[in-house]
Amino acid sequence: MATTTTRTTLLRLTAGISWASSFRSANAFHVTPNTAAAAAAAAAVVSRGSRSFMTSKEAATSSLTPEALCDRAKDFVNYKNAAGSGESTLDDVFDMCSLDVDLYGLTGDKVRPGFTAFFKSHDGLHHELLEEPTFVGDIGPGAVQYPFIKTWNDDNNGEPQRWSSIDPDKPRNKVERLEFDGDGMLARVSVVDLI
Asked: Structure pTM?
């Protein structure tokens, strides 16, 4: 599994890759000619392990394309889902965050304990994308958003709970918006109304 994850991450960061879905098999890919910069970025991934985020130095030499940012948004959702299912901790999410991140209104020393407490109070928290992440350059150079559904088990009675960011009966028309800084790190994550 670790080899597949590393291979998948390596492929996702290499220029010219056709990536249809974060759930595609690592063997189902098509690679077009690579540039020297992409090869260097890919080598950096192997040296870091399976994480798909970049350090400031690595990001300065690579291109934060809309496609790459959308892939990072999928990673964010996948990391949250892995933590919600108990397969991993939230460390991969925190590793994607800049030092001054605003994570759903949590900032500074409140980010890690606040977000961890939220997951503990929402047993089995899972996010499902209603649409693929979309780059929204008019919001900012590193902004990506998507509508979603989150499900969890009620902390008091264990009953399944469901919340959709789009619900005409409420009415509700929201998306989760991720704003990445110039280094490819999460600067802000929020749920916002679409107008």
From this structure: 0.69
Residue 173 near residue 146 (C-beta atoms within 8 A):
no
Q: List, for residues 164-189, the tens digit of each pLDDT value.
A: 999 999 999 999 999 999 999 999 99
Residue 127 corresponds to which tokens in the numbers above?
Answer: 């996010």
Cβ-contact 145, 193 below 8 angstroms = no
Contact 77, 92 (CB under 8 A): no
Assess contact for 42 and 51: CB atoms under 8 A.
no
Nearest to 149 by CA among 180, 134, 127: 127
Number of residues that this document lists for the chain: 195
- Tokens representing residue 165 in the block: 């960011």
Residue 52 structure tokens: 């798909």
